[in-house]
Structures are given as structure tokens and as C-alpha cells.
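Record 1 of the preview.
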Amino acid sequence: MPESPAVLARESAVFTRYLAGVSTTPYVTQAYARCHPTMPALAKGVPDRFDRFLVRVATAGGPFTRIADAYARRVRPTGLLRQKLVLMCAVLESSPPAHDYLNTAAAGSVAATVVRIGLAGVTSVLATLAGVLLLGPAHLALRGKGVAA
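->
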């Protein structure tokens, strides 16, 4: 069940903003769509309901993307959402202007670096906690439900 071009374009826009903080470009959207069918999660057949649910939550954008990613990072590290994000990261690494963001270290003092790392850690913990509270029940409900929609 391949995704439509509109769905892949939406994923491209949301994931580009999430990973690199920039708007997507036609090149990024086309490269993402072209490489999308080669993901291992799709080669196995239709992903299960929870994997598809996580992708739908993530493509809602904003904090939903971070929460879905944080949850998937812990409970579905090789699942569909994580594979889509890794694919998008690979596309962005070779695509201006996103490659500048992904391949450039943040400059600043040691104190500023420590604060940035601390804030990133707190954000990660909060997103994971929100994922457990918001997505955990859905994960339990959709577990073992096969591939039906």
C-alpha cells in the first residue's frame, strides 16, 4: 500500500522542518519520494497499525513530531517512523540549505554549550514522558491488531 504523492509531500515538509528547521524544497520532496519504497520496514509488507499510527501522529507537525519520535526512539527504534526520519536525514545531508544546519557545529562559549545540551536533555526527557503518557495507551490498544486499517 504505497503512500500517495500528497502524503509523501506532507511527510517531507514536516520532517524537514523537524530535522533541519527549514522549509522543504522540491528536490528534497522528490528525493524522499524516490527513495521511500526502499525502506526495510516497507519491504516486509504493510507496516502494522501502530507503526502507521505513529507516522500519522508525527506528520501532525510541531510538538507531535518530537513526541512521536521520542516514543519511537525508545519502543520502535527500527520501526517505520524512525526509518522515515533516517531517510529524510540522509536526503537533507546533501541538500542545501539543510546541509548547513546538519553539518555545522553550533558556536559559542562552554557555558552556552552546557546550557544547550542541558535544554536538549530536558526536552528529550519531557517528550519521552509525553509519548509514554499519550502514545503508550494507543500502543497497547493497537498491539497485535495486525495490519488492518
